[in-house]
């Protein structure tokens, strides 16, 4: 089995990007170690702080953010970073080639129940000149690499540099990432969907109707039965979609009119969309392709519908229809 270093070299990845991806992978090994020690290391539970988005930070949100920030700050290829847990962008060096956006710990609500969590990252080219928030506001299409690390029963790294999606498994004996799937591929069709059903009454009409039709199974217009899964960590749900197909969505809702979307464009939606597209799937908001969105601010949130291409298309058909005459469900 190839190591990560051997794989990057065989793909012809240039030295600066290989260095950065190695930094991210090495840091994820340390995060995996901290997560695995859980209560023994005193890393469970919440802090008294909130992040810029008004969410209470878990201890592990802060610890993992600090670990990534420290490692990336010491990496000469990094010009700047943006994190879900940082209020503002952080300027790192004067000459690095890359900007890194990350969600240091995805699935924070799973930490205290010893369930799936992960890290998501996105690498963008650093523009010339002064660094500002504006430098980061590039469509996802510009990403040069993206990936996630899943701290599950085994620790896995899914990575794309635009040449498909490769999956590595951390060997606990050698602490080395080994290539265990060289081409992740999302089936075009699926009979599995992932959505937080408790928000049903707050969705827009197209999503209400689409999910209602899935739930009707064989007796509905889709004429087949669907199964449902929800891990409450995007990283886990997207990993399942990459492994065996499926549709994952966190759609628009009007539960809190000031916050119609949950997932963050720069730290979650864009990197996951890059992986999904590279594995043959699709990623949309319902109205536009996620990776084509021109970001307006670094902490921006978006609706996300991604996964098996034919199922995403089926969902998008509902979004193209006029619901103005229909009674709400
Ligand atoms: P984070 O832990 O980084 O804040 O992200 C959690 C996100 C995402 O991972 C997951 O799909 C979703 O929030 C879960 O939301 P609900 O708690 O509403 O199910
Ligand atoms: Mn997250
Ligand atoms: Mn997070």
UniProtKB/TrEMBL annotation:
Subcellular location: Cytoplasm
GO BP term (any one): gluconeogenesis
Keyword Magnesium listed: yes
Chief location bin: cytoplasm
Catalysed reactions, as listed in the record: beta-D-fructose 1,6-bisphosphate + H2O = beta-D-fructose 6-phosphate + phosphate
Pfam families assigned to the protein according to its UniProt record, in alphabetical order: FBPase, FBPase_C
EC numbers for this chain: 3.1.3.11
Keyword annotations: Carbohydrate metabolism, Cytoplasm, Hydrolase, Magnesium, Metal-binding
Recorded GO CC terms: cytosol
Subunit structure: Homotetramer.
Protein name: Fructose-1,6-bisphosphatase class 1
Taxonomic source organism: Shewanella insulae
Gene giving rise to this polypeptide: fbp
């Amino acid at each position: 089995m190839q190591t990560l270093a051997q794989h990057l070299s065989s793909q012809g990845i240039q030295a600066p990007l290989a260095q950065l991806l190695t930094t991210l992978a090495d840091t994820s090994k340390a995060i995996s170690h901290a997560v695995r020690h859980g209560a023994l290391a005193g890393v469970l539970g919440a802090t008294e702080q909130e992040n810029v988005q008004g969410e209470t930070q878990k201890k592990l949100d802060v610890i993992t953010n600090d670990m990534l920030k420290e490692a990336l700050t010491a990496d000469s290829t990094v010009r700047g970073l943006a994190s879900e847990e940082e209020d503002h962008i952080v300027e790192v060096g004067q000459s690095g080639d890359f900007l890194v956006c990350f969600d240091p710990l995805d699935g924070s609500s799973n930490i205290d129940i010893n369930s799936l969590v992960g890290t998501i990252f996105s690498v963008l080219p650093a523009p010339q000149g002064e660094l500002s928030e504006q430098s980061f506001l590039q469509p996802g299409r510009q990403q040069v690499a993206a990936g996630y690390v899943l701290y599950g029963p085994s620790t896995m790294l899914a990575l794309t540099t635009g040449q498909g999606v490769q999956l590595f498994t951390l060997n606990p004996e050698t602490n080395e990432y080994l290539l265990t799937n060289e081409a992740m591929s999302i089936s075009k069709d699926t009979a599995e969907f992932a959505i937080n059903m408790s928000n049903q009454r707050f969705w827009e009409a197209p999503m209400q109707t689409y999910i209602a039709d899935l739930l009707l199974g064989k007796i509905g217009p889709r004429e087949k039965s669907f199964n449902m899964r929800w891990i409450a960590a995007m990283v886990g749900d997207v990993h399942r979609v990459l492994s065996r197909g499926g549709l994952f969505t966190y759609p628009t809702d009007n539960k809190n009119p000031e916050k119609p979307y949950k997932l963050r464009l720069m730290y979650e939606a864009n990197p996951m969309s890059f992986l999904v597209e590279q594995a043959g799937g699709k990623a949309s908001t319902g109205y536009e392709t996620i990776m084509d969105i021109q970001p307006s601010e670094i902490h921006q949130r978006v609706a996300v519908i991604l996964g098996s291409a034919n199922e995403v298309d089926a969902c998008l058909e509902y979004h193209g229809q006029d619901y103005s005459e229909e009674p709400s469900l």
